[in-house]
Write the structure tokens for this entry.
Amino acid sequence: MFIIGECINGMSLKIASAISQRDKKIIQKYALDQVSCGADALDLNCGPASPKPLVDMAWLVETVQEVTEKPLCLDSSNPKVIEEGLKASQNKTIINSTTADPEKLDILVALAKQYKSKLIGIAINAKGIPQNIDQRVELAATIVAYCQQNKFPVEDLYLDPIVLPINVAQAQMKDILSAIFEFKSISQPSPKTIIGLSNISQGSSVRSLINRTFLTMAVANGLDSAILNSKDKALMDTLITAELILNKNIFCDSYLEAYRKK
Amino acid sequence: METQLVLDKWPGVISTVVIGAKKEESGSRSNIVTIGGQSSLPLLFKEGAIPNKPRVAFEVWDIVPQDWHNELLSAYGEEINDPLGWAQKCVNEFKAEILYVRMQGAHPDFGDRSPEDSAKFISTLLDKVKVPLIITGSGDNTKDNLVMPLVSEAAKNERCIIGSAVQDNYKTIVASVLADGHSIIAESPIDINIAKQLNILISDMGLPLERIVMDPTIGALGYGLEYAYSIMERARLAALSGDKTLASPFICFVGQEAWRAKEAKGSIEQGIMWETITASSFIQSGADLLVMRHPKAIEKVSNFIETLFRG
């Protein structure tokens, strides 16, 4: 499982204030803490309240890559913000994200190719969030087809079925899980799959338990990657155990420790 | 249409273990031996780097072996009656580049030699032969825990491989190996889960994973060879996929297993063949160090290795 740490996000007041005050230490601590807890890459999002997201994103990139060589996941709905992040990056990058809309794909696939970045494609378009599995697969297939036509390697594409909060869209959960499985057979070689995990428990009070239960089910459906809180130890232990059960690692009594020694 | 080879690219690499230390590293060995370092399955030269060949160690004991085939003993002539002379013959006449010494004489049933005398034996041996050493106890845990710390200390800084750590008896030997600058043999009973667990337990004591050589326990041809083969293959696949806790080189005690086979006891030619075939099979399953007994079998296997690596 490729784990992208979610914590450097301007939605959090602490991060928002660190960004606005240019406090490198706080950002770098968040980066290193997540890596030491098992993050393979770090999501960077300057938040909706940022008055100057273009410079903020470049600053975040520079700040984080001072302390780690892990890939950076540049998270914004504004392609210009993403481009500023790409320009500033020496580390490997992941663009987070494009929708299935042609105008978004045109810009972001080109950027991904230009900067040799990976790309997250979310199964959504200007018409809104899909309501069933067929719509999800159709939107995902649109993104895959665009990448193939424009010679972007599908192995570097991460498809996100859009995880909705359980308290909003309980009826859709089975479809979301099935979509993770279905996405893999859209093309050969297969695209990768990804979810933004914490969204599932948005607005509920037992967040960690819901997160780790859903993650287990997603892993069983073949999930390749997740944006999550790697500092949640119970979540990470559950993930490692789920992958063990799927025979992805060799069992031993200290398998949790063995995984972390990797 | 030309056939295309399907090549895997692996993210993992087997650790490199150096055996022996020369003068400039405060040791006294005339040569050193390097094993491991592969980023490919065995012998798939096009798939990844295979920087080091499998190596063969001659097996010697600190006493005259009592249960070896007579004709196997006679391959070493008169010198078999003097363990130091036997070791020297391996190096001088048979050109051994590495020796495996089993401290069998310390076993309560085989002479019960004292820890001090065992350590003295190793000190003298280190004077008489200059090749790197692999040293294990007699297999009696209680006695080994008394003997091996002194043996390890007698060979301090010579960068030997010392064994064997097992799941329920590893702490004493790991502490000695750590203090005296050696590497360790981690022995598991044809069980990949225990092999992995033991490597973790050892590394938790502070000995880096890079100083572990795994003994997966093998069976000879006809006596479980394929079980060990599949365990080794599985460990290698996991290691090359990135599992550092299984990325240790393998040592295979071929001689002791092959010569136990009923077929090997039939005639000396058949015994030599049994040892040769067992060893060459394990080369193909990823053995890095083969411990062997008969000089003729060793010669055949060494030639086989040379042929395989000639490219």
